[in-house]
Amino acid sequence: HVQLVESGGDLVQPGGSLRLSCVGSGFTFNSYYIHWIRQAPGGALEWVASCYSDRDTHYADSVKDRFTLSRDNAKNTVYLRMNNLKPEDTAVYYCVRISGRPDWGQGTQVTVS
To answer: How many Cβ atoms are within 10 Å of 45's Cβ, its own excluded?
Structure first.
């Protein structure tokens, strides 16, 4: 079955950095975009970024120039490098694959404080 597992979330000070990982299994990983979506406490879901390859990446304006996606298809992994973190980046970060219906990971908590 399809599985997505995020890791790397942590408590970090403003201006700090984190790298999130998303490992996929149960599907042909290199055939799909992987999306990062976050949800702040009490907030709505917010699209953050999407990656098909290292050269095919897309970012929300709120994270552009601070967040960078990379992908290692040999490891079925997408990385989200987050620099210059701000308190408003505090959220649970999910990786998502869309094939008809979306498949979600369990999320990883990022707290910037």
So the answer is: 13
